Amino acid sequence: VYYDSLLNKFQLNGVSIQNSLLKTINSFSEANDLKVINFLEPHVKINNDLTIKTYDFTIEGDFNNINQLIYKLEQQTKFGEVISVNFEKKKNFKSGKFYLQARVLLRNYR
Q1: The whole model's pTM is what?
Q2: Residue 14 binned pLDDT confidence (cut-offs 50, 70, 90)
Q3: DSSP reduced 3-state for 67
């Protein structure tokens, strides 16, 4: 019961971490006006008995909302550690407007 409560608290409901991570990102994005641009298959590296998975995804939206998502992933869930965030300001040439994208790398050890 204790371990089940921990899994529910940290949003790891028995399904794969990749599915839980994507669900968390999507629900946060819908509530905070962010757009998930891509979510790539994790890069897997096996070192002795340790499996290291690195998840790579790109988010588009407001700087503060993206930072809130990163904070949520690092502090309020146990998916892993954010090892890299690369912000890039881009321009939509049709409309002439600028937008912000962030490529995030999140590493998980098992």
Answers
A1: 0.79
A2: very low
A3: helix
